[in-house]
Amino acid sequence: MRRFALSAVGRDRPGIVAALSADLLAHDLNLEDSQMSILHGHFTVVLIVAGAEETDLESLRADLEGTAARLSLDALSLNELAPEGLGGQSAEARAEPGWIVTVYGADHPGIVHAVASALADSNVNITDLQTRLASGPEGGELYAMMLEVALPEGFSESDLEGLFEGVRREQGVQATVRALEQDVL
């Protein structure tokens, strides 16, 4: 089985998912994981797809690029992923997310870097990250960030809370930590 990463960005409009998924289906590819969202008026797509060993990558790329041109997408990228076990973590080695971190404060450059660096320095893995910019209560812009994280073995909730003491002070933000409620799909 071969796996590919497909990403696309374009001005939001109906039909983007239908057109991209038609190309994938035409090449007998299965959509395994996806994240799609509207970011600042642009529809963003990130997909992991799987297909047979004989999948014709160049033909697939040509079809997707044709679709991107027809839809006036701003960006499209298709790359083959390394097979599991070749430089990647095995499924057993990946920790599941167990915590939600919410950060908010007056918008300014450096918030994401400060939070991500504090987590990386303690080997905490970010498994999902979303940000939004909104109007604040006094007319300024409020930056909100929500992360799902997986803790390394032996790392506690209080350790996670402690990571944000410096970030709160240096960035002038609020940060909260809570356990992730597990949903069953």
What's the gist of this structure?
Helices cover 28% and strands 39% of the residues. It is of the alpha+beta class and 185 residues long. The chain folds into two domains: 2-80, Alpha-Beta Plaits (2-Layer Sandwich), CATH 3.30.70.260; 95-179, ACT domain (Alpha-Beta Plaits), CATH 3.30.70.260.
Structure, described:
The protein has 185 residues and is an alpha+beta fold. The chain has two domains: 2-80, 2-Layer Sandwich (Alpha-Beta Plaits), CATH 3.30.70; 95-179, Alpha-Beta Plaits, CATH 3.30.70.260. It is built from four helices and eight strands. It has helices at 16-26, 57-70, 111-121, 157-171; strands at residues 2-11, 30-39, 42-51, 75-80, 99-106, 125-135, 141-150, 173-179. The strands form two sheets. The chain has a four-stranded antiparallel sheet, covered by helices on one side. A four-stranded antiparallel sheet has the order 6-7-5-8, with helices on one face.
Mean pLDDT: 92
CATH top level of the largest domain is Alpha Beta
Spell the H/E element sequence: EHEEHEEHEEHE
Give the termini separation: 25 Å
CATH topology of the largest domain: Alpha-Beta Plaits
Q: Give the CATH H-level superfamily of the largest domain.
A: ACT domain
- State the shape: globular
Query: What is the count of DSSP helices, taking H or I runs of 4+ residues?
Result: 4
Low-confidence parts, pLDDT < 50 over ≥5 residues? none
Biggest β-sheet, characterized? 4 strands, antiparallel
Q: Order of strands side by side in the largest beta sheet?
A: 2-3-1-4
CATH architecture of the largest domain: 2-Layer Sandwich
Question: What is the alpha-carbon Rg in Å?
Answer: 20 Å
